[in-house]
């Protein structure tokens, strides 16, 4: 099956952002590192779905774009009218005992993953709401906030390899009412392994949303504290609420998949590739070093000319 990264890139320009904080990534991982040219990334604004109660990010963070929710339209734009779209690859990650495996079962509408925990990552295929899906349920990580055990790193890399050439979307599962500072620190350590670039492919999936009761998701995010605010900013306010106790509610699943397709479009159809991001980060670091050296040389030359002029 053809991969979206092998087809022509469609750029979606929706506004201007601070070039110091934004990077536009090249899709061709086979390119020589010397030819990689960092470009500016134009982040999207959250697209509201009727069942996810999305909240708008702070002013200036994102700019509005049109909702892209037609599955067939997305397929035609990315792969052409005569092409068969590949399965949407979703990698489910998160801490142990967060309902992560149940999220995969709810999406597929069947008991595809063991919800009693397991030592290995698991793969499941299926069709849901008219989409062909490939789901990888990564082995849940622990609570150590100071370091990541070697076995956890290996399991994370193994989960990535199970959805080669890479996941289109990472579903980061977080229990809605339980995101503490220690959980933030543990999450940050694990995501750092995947590089900063993983966040533009990440959607937060909140479980236990039924416990909000009379509160809205907007109220909860605004009052939950700086740790949850940090998470929202990292994922660019791309999130969805899923109630695993109501797997028969297919509207919530359809909304999640719509949002995943929006993200795929926003990323130009590119999947996440750890190898690509590592090479890009190396290239950006090299260019930053060159710019600093050029700046120092220019300053040194200017100072020399000034001293020479003063002595004449």
UniProtKB/TrEMBL annotation:
<protein>
    <recommendedName>
        <fullName>AIG1-type G domain-containing protein</fullName>
    </recommendedName>
</protein>
<dbReference type="InterPro" id="IPR027417">
    <property type="entry name" value="P-loop_NTPase"/>
</dbReference>
<keyword id="KW-0342">GTP-binding</keyword>
<dbReference type="Pfam" id="PF04548">
    <property type="entry name" value="AIG1"/>
</dbReference>
<feature type="domain" description="AIG1-type G">
    <location>
        <begin position="85"/>
        <end position="281"/>
    </location>
</feature>
<keyword id="KW-0547">Nucleotide-binding</keyword>
<comment type="similarity">
    <text>Belongs to the TRAFAC class TrmE-Era-EngA-EngB-Septin-like GTPase superfamily. AIG1/Toc34/Toc159-like paraseptin GTPase family. IAN subfamily.</text>
</comment>
<feature type="compositionally biased region" description="Basic and acidic residues">
    <location>
        <begin position="290"/>
        <end position="306"/>
    </location>
</feature>
<dbReference type="GO" id="GO:0005525">
    <property type="term" value="F:GTP binding"/>
</dbReference>
<dbReference type="InterPro" id="IPR006703">
    <property type="entry name" value="G_AIG1"/>
</dbReference>
<feature type="region of interest" description="Disordered">
    <location>
        <begin position="290"/>
        <end position="312"/>
    </location>
</feature>
<dbReference type="InterPro" id="IPR045058">
    <property type="entry name" value="GIMA/IAN/Toc"/>
</dbReference>
